[in-house]
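Sequence only, no structure available. Ideas?
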Amino acid sequence: MRTLRLALCQINLVVGDIEGNLEKILSYIDKAVTKQAEIIVFPELAITGYNPEDLLFYPAFIKKAEEALNEIIKNVKDFIVIAGLPVKKDDLYNSAAIIANQSLIDVYHKIYLPNYSVFDEMRYFKPGSRIPVYEYDGVFFAVNICEDIFHPSLPGLIQVANSAELIINISASPFYAGKYQKKTRMLTTRAYDMGVYVCYLNMVGGQDEIVFDGRSLIISPSGDIMAMGKAFEEDLIIADLDIEEVTKTRLREPKIRWEICFGDREIIKIPLKRKAKSKVVLSRKESAYEMTEEEEIFKALTTGLRDYVNKNGFKKVCLGLSGGIDSSFVALIAVEALGRDRVIGVFMPSRYTSKESRQDVYELVKNLGIELIEISIDELFEEYLKSLSDTFKDLPQDVTEENIQSRIRGNILMAVSNKFGWLVITTGNKSELSVGYATLYGDMAGGYAVIKDVYKTQVYRVARWASRGRIPERVFKKPPSAELKPGQIDQDTLPPYEVLDRILYLHIEKCMGQQEIIEKDFDRDTVKKVLQMVKRAEFKRRQAPLGIKVSPVCLGKDWRFPITNRFGG
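Reply:
I predicted one. Tokens follow.
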């Protein structure tokens, strides 16, 4: 009976921390060896972290990764390790090292280099051209990297046509809501269509604006999920694969029998014998449950914030609390991500702050158990008005005075940040940032925009799911307001958020222009106004802090529009 014990090491890595990543890789090798794993797998660019971006231009960085690889090789004995790293040969490649018996057996180079969304791999790497298959004591397996398996033909089909019974895909696949379900359908289809085990390993954790959700998969030749890694957590997934299942499946359903094998058949023999293993229950299918969109988004936001704060060495975060849904939700995320002792709320009331907002701030702080600092902005605001009175003589008050209040608050938050070393996290959502309903150098001031990619209607839904009574009920029900003038509500300036968010979704995620959106039964004047606001706000978005991607198109690397732009359609 041909069986194989596989270990997928779903780990959280830090870009550039090659020593720390190496230490974690070696520790997981030790854990997998104690479980008698024969093939131990690590994610795409595991040694350097994903994505190193322009660090890849520095020879010293590539050399350090090579030194780490050599250290791994020394620690690999009578088993196989597969680990991702950048490799410099004739050019630079995104590669997977195949290691056994304290030797580098082979290096596979990624063929399909993604250059869309947050990806920019063509800037750094040359595509590979070899498609080898590896023989391990009568078991034939192949390795490919992330995007390679998203393509329905190469390299997977050639690998299977050249005898592969197991495809190991190492990945760094960023999260967005709903992507996992699509990816799972694709991977199970690949396994079923080719009659092959597919073992997909994704990394986990936050890196700047992207989050990796893990949820690695081991899929049988019949397309069934055998085991799944935890969501948004590190995990060691171990399973015993009965390789004879591949033979049985292909005899019953010989879908690949007539596939033509292009090119030379390259089989690389690994000089190891498979070992007898003690019987233990290893595969874990019970963790494979469907998350709701609200749970997915909330876990992504907490993971992204936690890793950004911890990996960059911040001890605490602070944020402005207004009594509104956005700041309440961000405070809740911060407490879940970091713990109540690391979150500081700053309440900055003015003459326009309602007593209800004050009450809601204090109730929220009590429910979350966080520290609160209260600093009134009224005296500072009055000083601004006096100082500008001659310059603004005979001119009515307008948005200028509203923005002054927001900028005073931004200055206060940055002052406490400078004094205590806290990271200011901003509370603006995707709806506001899309149309510029935010104050540059005011409520946009800060180091990390937690809900930058969450529409206002999503904020309400996800906050409701996560609150468990901690966000005051009135916060969900009162009309949203910046409280920068008497009786102000957001709908004085914007369409209802249910309408606004749908227009923005069609424009941003679906690339629809004005007329196409109008044809979806939206008011012409409303659509025209919204799209004009989106266009005018581009200069603000360029100056906004980075934030966590949770949608297919975030207003960061996904969104690259010219500021100087006269196209009106």
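The two ends are 64 Å apart (CA to CA).
Hope that gets you unstuck.
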